[in-house]
Amino acid sequence: MKNNNIVRLGGILCLISAIAAGVLAFTNDFTKDKIAEVELKASLDPAVLEMVMPGSDTFLPYEDTALIDTIKAENGKFVDLMVPVDGSGNQMGYAIKTLSTVAGFGGDIELFIGVSPEGKITGIAVTQILETAGLGTKVAEPDFKDQFTGVDASAEFSDSDYTMISGATISSKSFTSAVSNAVNIYSQYLNK
């Protein structure tokens, strides 16, 4: 009799789990487009635009979807590629969104990195960071991230050329690896 009770309770638990999984799958499918739309709007915030590509009016989706698919297939940390334009619609360079290739203390750091037509880093916006507040999050402050502005994105990149934050070396290396990944993406796919 105890075995029947255990089997019955196990069956009920499996049924409840299956229903919950179905509801979660439906909710995910129903909301994924809205989440992507909200993330796109957040990346078009005027403050983000100014940090990534000073003087830009908006970011447009990169038109060569085949190239984006190629980059995604070959680089698991690549997130997106946008085209910053000024008020007249002139392209001002590229905006590469990427995750760090070296995990930070709290996981991957996501950056939006602007690259000018001349191949120089124009600015960086941190779009996702889960590092320790007051220590690892210092990588998002201008004192650290601005040292990458003006760096040649078509040249060899080494994190040893940059000042790391004392006590937040893991976060510093994670941030630097995201910049390095953007530089590699620019050099390999966009530097024509």
Outline the secondary-structure elements:
Layout: H1 2-43, H2 46-52, E1 58-61, H3 65-74, E2 78-85, E3 94-99, E4 110-115, E5 121-128, H4 142-145, H5 169-190
Antiparallel strand pairs: 1-2, 2-3, 3-4, 4-5
Describe the protein in words.
This protein is of the alpha+beta class. It has 5 helices and 5 strands, in the order ααβαββββαα. A 5-stranded antiparallel β-sheet has the order 1-2-3-4-5, sandwiched between helices. It is globular, with a radius of gyration of 21 Å.
Radius of gyration: 21 Å
Question: Quick one: how many beta strands?
Answer: 5
Number of helices: 5
As laid out across the biggest beta sheet, the strand order is: 1-2-3-4-5
- What would the average pLDDT be, to the nearest integer? 90
Could you tell me how far the N terminus lies from the C terminus, measured between alpha carbons in angstroms?
75 Å
Major beta sheet summary: 5 strands, antiparallel
Q: What are the segments in which pLDDT stays under 50 over at least 5 consecutive residues?
A: none
Strand content: 15-25%
**What string, H for helix and E for strand, traces the elements in order?**
HHEHEEEEHH
Give me the secondary-structure category. Answer: alpha+beta
Shape: globular
Helicity level:
40-55%
